[in-house]
Amino acid sequence: PSCQIGDFKVDLHNGPKSAWNVSAAVVFTTHFCDTHQIPLSCDIILDITRRFHGHLKYLKRRYYSLQGTPDSRILMRQINRHWQRKSSRFHRRLEIFEKHPILRVHIPKLQRLGAGGMSSDESDTDIVANPTNSLTGIHPHYVVLQPKWRAASITHLLRCADSLYHIKRRRRTSDM
Q1: How far apart, in Å, are the Cα atoms of 22 and each of 2, 14, 27?
Q2: Each residue of 122-163: pLDDT tens digit?
Q3: pTM of the model
Q4: Can you say how many angstroms the Cα of residue 12 is from the centroid of all Cα atoms in its chain?
């Protein structure tokens, strides 16, 4: 093994699936299950390991964002904001799917898509270091880009969920 829990370390210079980090994931998963008295099963081990690797990717991005030049930090913030918008879109849609009985049957499809399967967006300006450029007062406008690989029927389903979200939101603000 790469380490024991007493001297636990991860390797941020190589990918999450490097030999060291795969071994560290096993150490972490075993310790996590022992600590929280979670019975080991294939599904549990795979889920915790997947989450460990995802968090390791985040830590690596964070580490390198702090190491870089000011320009690379701006670029990293733009990438993070872009991903945050996709993630927010995913969780907002998941909440709608969970609350509406007709849509609940589609939750597994949405979960398979994940945040990465949500539509992307592209700003109409290169100056997006801040959501509002303080020098010009320009608010960037975003164009939604549907993934080419995603079926039109899935896009339609997601847009229905978005419409329900906006209806719900308008009702909530009008009730205040």
Answers
A1: 9, 11, 9
A2: 665 544 445 554 555 666 676 777 777 788 899 999 999 999
A3: 0.53
A4: 19
